[in-house]
Amino acid sequence: MKATVIALPLFLLAVAFAGPACAQAIDETDILGRRLQALEADPATSGFAQLERLQARQAIDAYANARARDRDALRQVAGWRVDTAETAARTEALRREIDRLDRTRADLLVEASRQEAARARAEAERLRIQAQIQAEEAARLRAAADSEFTARQQAETVLEGVASDQAAKLRAARARDAELARREAELMRQAEQDID
Predict the structure, then answer these.
(1) C-alpha to C-alpha distance for 38 and 43, rounded to whole angstroms
(2) What contacts 90, CB < 8 A, 6 or more positions away?
(3) How far apart, in whole angstroms, are the C-alpha atoms of residue 18 and residue 22?
């Protein structure tokens, strides 16, 4: 009984000295645990760095259950593990975001190429229609020029025909005049001879 009475104050004395260290360990594990929970609760990082988060949880548990002489080293290890888990999760989340942005960029480039190709096809179609209109206009102008040339040739032929008819009539009229003048001269000579 006397040994129990002596052991009890020693236990209380050990708890009193260990109390601040235990309280500090509880506070540190609480802080590290909250950081880990925040990492798991964040939708941007919750699915990443599974191994690193498991290692951080194990390090926090080891620190919480450590003996006083191992606490400092295990607290530092637990802090590093939580830092590593946070960094790994954020890095993986950023990598996923970069991949998503790369895919979006690639999609936008493909869409821009499609739109550029559509614009080029529309421009080619516009130029084809314009060329067709110009070809039709040139053909119409050629046909009009050919028609005008044919009409001019016909008019010239008609004019030549009329001119040759007129020339023939003029020659015939001159020939008649000459014949009439010759007859008149002959008649005059005969009249003079009859008078003599």
Answers:
(1) 10
(2) 45
(3) 6
As a whole number of angstroms, the distance between CA 180 and CA 192 comes to: 18
Q: Which amino acid is at 57?
A: R
According to the model, what pLDDT value does residue 108 have? 92
3-state secondary structure of 183: helix
The pLDDT value recorded for residue 11 is 39
Give 131-182 pLDDT, tens digit per residue. Answer: 999 999 999 899 988 888 888 888 888 878 777 888 888 888 888 888 888 8
pTM: 0.50
**What is the spatial distance between Cα 86 and Cα 81, in angstroms, rounded to a whole number?**
9
Q: Is the dihedral of CA 98, 102, 107, 111 positive or negative?
A: positive
Q: Tell me how far apart the alpha carbons of residues 60 and 33 are, in angstroms, rounded to a whole number.
A: 7
Using alpha carbons, select from 91, 104, 96 the residue that is nearest to residue 39.
91
Task: Using the structure block, give the residue that is written with the tokens 């000459």.
Answer: 178
DSSP, collapsed to helix, strand or coil, labels residue 66 as coil
Token pair listed for 176: 């008649």
